[in-house]
Design goal:
The chain is an alpha+beta fold and 201 residues long. It has 6 helices and 10 strands, in the order αβαααβββαβββββαβ. Helix content is 17%, strand content 20%. The longest helix is centred in the N-terminal third of the chain and has 13 residues.
C-alpha cells in the first residue's frame, strides 16, 4: 500500500449514502439567477486574514465600540412582543433547551461575544411574522436555523428578515439591518429534513 493511498472501511452502500448526504448539503438560495453574485468575485477585501474586516478604509475600532451609547430604542409593541418563535409553525414537537435551563440574562448585551447574538424578526413568504435567534460568524454573515429563512408552513423563502445585534429588551444599541437574500441547503428546503435545518440571512 502506498503512503498516499486512501483507506476506508465504508461499504459501497455507505459511500452512496455519503454522496446523497452531500447532495442534501448543496446550497440553495432565495435569489433568482439574475440577482445572484459570486461572492468571491464581488468581495474586495482580503479573505482568510482573521481580521474583523479586511477592507481598505474600514475602521475596526469604530466597529468594536460603535453603539455603546445605547441611544437607539425600538418600540416593542404587543404584536412584536408576542411574535411566535419561527420553529413553532415548522415542528410538531416544540423545541426546548436540552436538560435543565440554567441560562441567565446578559444585560447589557454590548460586549463580545454577546453583541454577536441577534434577534431576527422574520416576515415569511405568506406575510406572517415570527422571530428567531442568529449569531454573527463573520462581519457580514449571520447563521441561524433553516426554518428562519425558509418556511415550509409558509410555502417558501422569507420576504425579509430584520437583524438586531445585541438586542436587549427594547434597546437596539447597534441598530438593525434588513436582509432580503437568504441561503440554506436542499436537505432543508427540498427534503424538509431537520438534520439540515440551517441557513443564513
Amino acid at each position: 500500500m502506498s503512503e498516499n493511498e486512501i483507506v476506508s472501511n465504508q461499504t459501497n452502500q455507505g459511500k452512496e449514502i455519503e454522496r446523497e448526504d452531500q447532495q442534501l448539503h448543496e446550497i440553495t438560495s432565495s435569489e433568482t439567477p439574475s440577482q445572484s453574485i459570486d461572492s468571491e468575485e464581488q468581495f474586495e477585501g482580503m479573505m482568510g486574514r482573521g481580521e474583523i474586516e479586511a477592507v481598505s478604509g474600514f475602521n475596526k475600532f469604530r466597529a468594536l465600540n460603535d453603539g455603546l451609547d445605547f441611544d437607539e430604542k425600538i418600540l416593542v409593541t404587543e404584536d412584536l412582543e408576542n411574535l411566535p418563535d419561527a420553529g413553532a409553525g415548522e415542528f410538531q414537537i416544540p423545541e426546548s433547551v436540552c436538560g435543565s435551563d440554567d441560562r441567565i440574562r446578559i444585560s447589557p448585551a454590548t460586549n463580545i461575544p454577546w453583541r454577536w447574538i441577534c434577534q431576527l424578526i422574520i416576515t415569511k413568504a405568506d406575510a406572517s411574522q415570527s422571530r428567531c435567534t442568529g449569531w454573527f460568524i463573520g462581519p457580514r454573515t449571520v447563521i441561524t436555523s433553516g426554518h428562519c429563512v425558509y418556511s415550509h408552513s409558509a410555502n417558501g423563502w422569507a420576504q425579509k428578515i430584520e437583524v438586531f445585534p445585541g438586542m436587549d429588551e427594547n434597546e437596539a444599541p447597534f441598530g438593525s439591518q434588513v436582509a432580503t437574500s437568504f441561503r440554506s441547503v436542499k436537505g432543508w428546503t427540498e427534503e424538509d429534513d431537520d438534520d439540515f435545518d440551517y441557513g443564513t440571512p
